[in-house]
Design a protein that fits this description.
single chain, 178 residues
Amino acid sequence: MAIARKLQPPPVRDDSAVRVWRVVREPFTAQTWRRVAYALLAFPVGVICVPLALVGAPTARWQRGLVRNFLGVPGAQGVPGREPPGSARGLAHAVLAAPLDLVVLAVTVYGWSLVPMNLGWPLRAAGSDYADAWGGPTFAGAWTFHAIVGGLGFLLLMPWLGRVMASVQLRLAAALLS
């Protein structure tokens, strides 16, 4: 009996099921929502840091703290050092990262707003002609199409797009704030 157990092949792990579960689970993880919070805060904090850096506030330390707390940069890269008054790192990051942070903010707000907007499509399409709506000509078809493609589609897409955008923001922060 013991020999028969040893001769059996090891159980096969279904990697495709693991990948699918990872995609489906990603919108509900804390790390996804920390990246969303960083995307929403990076631009306004950067704008506030420009005048504060000009008067000598430790804005690089604040921006490193924002990156560390929301994007989870471990240890050495995110630990704020003693920043001399009037340091240019915070100002440089605030100015040079502003265009990227603004694009990330706009994509994040628009992409995540599409999820409830399409799941609740009947609330915004009341009284319209469903024959011209995507998924029409019936109400059920239009709602199903909007819920699946626009609602669930963007629910599954936005965390991965957020990962890409956060990695670009993180590289820029590492280059300018280190």
